[in-house]
């Protein structure tokens, strides 16, 4: 009987896992170097956790089911609700700000496509308990450091905005409910639409000509120079505060050497963002967001905790892989081992001692576990598993108290006293 | 609105995750040092995958459901079926033996209790394509190395047997079907039952007096010396082969310096084991198995692959934690960071540059992201997050081009030129 894995789910064989792990190790090291403490949350949560703020969209696209005890549960489609639940439960014991990193597997029941799988990893960084622009900057600088530590340079672009910008526009239009949602969504998608398409969607949503022109003036803005023009489109307290915050952010990020672009079409789909929002795209504009995040200052309270400012972001592993591959910096997909121990003849006990001793010295060692295998076949295997060196333990050499160490790259061989190796 | 995690699922806060990660890093390093390549499999698989060989028991105790596309799926309750599926799919491309390590989360819908949760981690080691006792020994020696690398010494005991031993007894009794299954289970549980309880179960299963006495003679055996007596209980080809294999295993393990005990009550619940089986228990006998495994030479073929000998084992994370805690070697549950950067006054830009520079040097750095926080409160926070040193960036020091570096353990402070740090 033959089986296949589910569509949208990946098997990671040793070669692929080795590359993936190298990338995730760099992400984890960057989290550590930026003072984020790792945490982990369950992979299954009560469905109710996602009904608070994630919007219906996410609930419809999850692996949700009733468990054997009759509970409605969901395989975690995103991490933030779990983190907020955890934070709210123990916030009194923790010294603030709290900086959390986590690197969970997540699941969404969506149509699998390039850069979008049903099972994926999403490294996640959050800072709880710091309201200021310094925390926004620290979060964005950490995201930037992840990409530059992975070897990316000018292949990506960081675009930032503020929810206040869109809120002010929607409020100036005097719309709410479904119309407001449609305006939100259209602005969010405007980077991938032409003006006519934007206009059509806005008219469909019920906006009048003035309203349509206001939104088009907004979505046509791009770059830090445009923040003045933004105040020309909508002037008001909320808009001015948003612009002020964004300018302070740009200045704070200069200290980190991080460049960003102001882009009012950055909205982020999640309902829970409240302030600064940011996304990172490939410079060519071919891919989905490499990462995205923002400030969510009301969510902890909505989950039963005290009023807590928070800012965070998540990295999409599939898009990151596509970007690194297109930049030709995805790690080599190959396995390796320091030593292969070949066994020739009745020398099993010595071979075992050699392997033990090398392992005790911290070496990675594969020892032949198939007695009677030919020498040639053992060397081929050593090569296939990526051994740097092969220690050949053979009856004849051992009679002189020696083994042969072969460098698998150069082919050079040297005799070494077995006592030196055990 | 307040939420709790599901019963049997754990939140790992930073302190706890730090300890858990230290343990898992050691397990991963041991896998590497023993030449196992890491792989990873999906967390959701078609239900059919578990119906092949795992027995009904496991299917009844899983998180199984119908996905939105009408497929019967299961959150993976064990890893072996996925690995065997993966091996069968690509075995032709791989040089044998294949050694795989994986460290997945797994899920079972069981009653949560000490050492048994509904969500758990299970490091898993497998060798495919090596039929001999050398591979059995390598697997068991790797399991032993995991525990000794974690710092365990005489707190645990490795017990081994062979499925042929039980098979021979069952076959000598001339029973099959449910009776055979009941005999299997009773032998498996006999370590935790007294003779009267064993007798009762066997009589209930339908065994006659002679049969009962045969099984009791088997379960009373213990230790390598008992392998001769074993042949006194049942003599036959299968039994002799099993005893021969076990003796060869004991000898092979001597080369690794690994002691084991022969214990015919080691059966392992999984239906798919075919030969040598082993379990590791705490010496006090209070806990469930720390790890267990064995040889499963027919499973790959049953999954559509070619006939492939295989041996492997899985480690139970919850029991391992209980054992390490009782031995007082569970890692300290605390977070740490190399540097905290305190910000006093209007020095944000310099503080950012100091943090960047330390991070570029590979240090783990938390920088204050709350402007205006008092000096005392910053030092308290540095202490709470486990900072080794605090760099105090203050307006007054900076006027002289200096910062203060405080050793958080000794309290010693020294002035350092800021240029040396940036």
From TrEMBL, chains A, B:
GO terms for cellular component: cytoplasm. Residues 1-134 form the Aminoacyl-transfer RNA synthetases class-II family profile domain. Its EC number is 6.1.1.21. It catalyses: tRNA(His) + L-histidine + ATP = L-histidyl-tRNA(His) + AMP + diphosphate + H(+). L-histidine binds at residues 78-80, 108, 122, 126, 268, 272-273. Coiled coil: none annotated. Its main location: cytoplasm. GO terms for molecular function: ATP binding; histidine-tRNA ligase activity. Pfam families: HGTP_anticodon, tRNA-synt_His. The keyword Protein biosynthesis applies. It is found in: Cytoplasm. One of its GO terms (biological process) is L-histidine biosynthetic process. InterPro entries: aa-tRNA-synth_II (IPR006195), aa-tRNA-synth_II/BPL/LPL (IPR045864), Anticodon-bd (IPR004154), Anticodon-bd_dom_sf (IPR036621), His-tRNA-ligase (IPR015807), HisRS-like_core (IPR041715), HisRS/HisZ (IPR004516), HisZ (IPR004517). It comes from the Archaea. Keywords: Aminoacyl-tRNA synthetase, ATP-binding, Cytoplasm, Ligase, Nucleotide-binding, Protein biosynthesis. Gene3D superfamilies: Anticodon-binding domain, Bira Bifunctional Protein, Domain 2. Belongs to the class-II aminoacyl-tRNA synthetase family. This is Histidine--tRNA ligase. It comes from Halorutilus salinus. The gene is hisS.
